[in-house]
Specification:
Elements: H1 11-21, H2 26-35, E1 37-39, H3 40-47, H4 51-63, E2 67-73, E3 80-86, H5 88-115, E4 119-122, E5 127-130, H6 131-136, E6 149-150, H7 154-180
Antiparallel strand pairs: 1-3, 2-3, 4-5, 4-6
Helix pairs in contact: 3-4, 5-7
The structure holds zinc ion.
Residues 122, 124-125, 127, 141, 143-144, 146 line the site of zinc ion.
């Protein structure tokens, strides 16, 4: 838990947090990541920000399960003071979940590419025709009479497979990080 690296420096986490609290919220979240737990008045004082602004940022984090809070009543003033605590497991879990969703999308794309109806093309005229039309034409181009060639989508599939590999590795790294918490 007492890791010295600030999670906000991780580009994936930075993007995720930025999407939730916006650019102006980043320094506040970064601060909480460093100190793990603090009441909102401490944070406001330290960062010279309005306490309501701190609270609004923390609520956004809370609704995304990235922080927890406890609150106590200030006996003198009668209002509530919230103590916010960073919840890193949820951060990693949501990041992993979104990555896995992305991965599923890539797998689906590969399947779509593989199951795509075979297209034939004339390399000279750059005309694409579906299988039935090509069969009708006896696989000769109606424009130049040249042989139609099957259009290869291997390049697209290879590219997708590369993306799948990268993303899978990324998920592994995130899972390792999660286990280190
Ligand atoms: Zn042709």
């Amino acid at each position: 838990m007492a890791k010295k690296i600030n999670l906000i420096d991780d580009p994936d986490i930075n993007n995720l947090v930025r999407g939730i609290v916006g650019e102006t919220g980043i320094p506040i979240v970064s601060h909480l990541f460093k100190i793990q737990k603090a009441d909102e008045f401490e944070i406001a004082k330290k960062l010279k920000e309005d306490v309501n602004f701190i609270r609004s940022i923390m609520y956004k984090m809370y609704t995304n399960n990235l922080v927890n809070y406890t609150r106590r009543r200030d006996a003198e003033k009668g209002w509530y003071i919230y103590t916010w605590e960073f919840a890193p497991k949820k951060l990693f879990n949501s990041l992993i979940a979104s990555r896995q969703k992305e991965l599923e999308g890539l797998f689906k794309k590969v399947e779509e590419e593989k199951s795509m109806e075979q297209i034939f093309t004339c390399p000279t005229c750059s005309i694409n025709l579906d299988f039935n039309k090509s069969l009708e034409l006896n696989f000769t181009c109606f424009a130049c009479g040249g042989m139609l060639q099957p259009l290869n989508n291997d390049l697209i599939i290879n590219g997708l497979n590369q993306d799948i590999k990268c993303l899978s590795n990324n998920i592994c790294v995130l899972k390792e990080k999660l286990n280190e918490i």
